[in-house]
Amino acid sequence: MGLSGSIHRKRRLRALFVVLIAAIALPASTQGKISETERAEIIREMMAEHGTAKILIPRSKRALDLRTDGTHDEDGWGDALDKFGPAARVGDMVEITKVEFKGQRLVIELNHGIKGGRKWWHRVQVSGTRNQGTMLGSTADVHAPGGTKIAVLYDEDIPSMQADELRALLEPVLDFERRSAAELYVEKLPEEFQVAIKEKTVIEGMDRDMVLLAKDRPDRKVRDLKDGIETEDWIYGVPPGDVIFVTFEDGTVINIKETYANIGGQVKRDPDPNEDPNN
Known about the structure:
Layout: H1 3-25, H2 36-46, E1 50-53, E2 57-58, E3 64-67, H3 74-84, E4 86-88, E5 92-102, E6 105-110, E7 125-127, E8 133-135, E9 142-143, E10 148-153, H4 163-170, E11 174-175, H5 181-187, H6 191-198, H7 208-215, E12 220-226, E13 229-236, E14 241-249, E15 252-261
Parallel strand pairs: 3-10, 5-9
Antiparallel strand pairs: 1-5, 1-11, 2-4, 5-6, 6-10, 7-8, 12-13, 13-14, 14-15
Helix pairs in contact: 6-7
C-alpha cells in the first residue's frame, strides 16, 4: 500500500475515533430511542419507589401532562383538581405503582391511579399494653389521600435514559429524597426566614408556622387587646432563667424581646411607663 493509501487509512481511523468520542460524550437523551433493556431496568427500579409531593397533584382519569422542561398544563391540572380533588398535597407520600411506555408518552401511575389511594391499614390504630396507640403503616410521612397518573411528554420517541434521568424529570413534582412537608415548606421561604429557622431564632415578619419550625411550641400564650389592636405573646422559657416574648399582630411577628425572670417571680413584660400602676 502506497503513501496515499496509508494517509487515507489514518484519516478514516481518525474520523472513526472522533465519532466514538462524540457518541460517548453525548447525553443519553440524544443517543437514540430507548431500548427494551432500558425500559425493563427503569420499571424494575421505579416500581414501588416512594417520594413526597412537592406541589398539589390532582386526581385524574386521564394522565396529567408533564413536559420535559418541568412545566405542566396548569389549566388541565386545575380542571382535574376541581372535578376530582387532590391525589396528593405538598408533603404527602406517594408510591409509583406502574410505569408504561406509550409512544411519545412515559406514563407514571401513583398510588394505583384514580381508584387507588390511602390503604385501609394506614388508618387502623392498635393499642399497646401502656395505652399507647400506633398507626399501622404510619411513618414520619403522611400517606397521600388518592391516586392519579402523570404522563411525561416527548416531541419524538422516548429517548434512551436511565432511572435517575426519569427521577430528574419528575423532580419538579416529586421529591425522591422523601423530605418532610416542613422541609419542602421551608425551601419556598425567603432566604432570611430559612436562615432564621435553621439557626432556631425568630425574626420580625415570621408567621406562626415559621416560629413553630424555629422554636417549637411556646410554654405559654397570652393575648392582649389595647386601643382596638389585638396582639398575642408566645412566651418561651420559665423562671428562673431567660424568657423570650414573641409578639404577633394579625398572625405576623412584630416584636421579639428577651429578658430574665427571677425565681418565684411572675413572668411578665416591663410595665408601660405611660400606664397608671394603680390600675
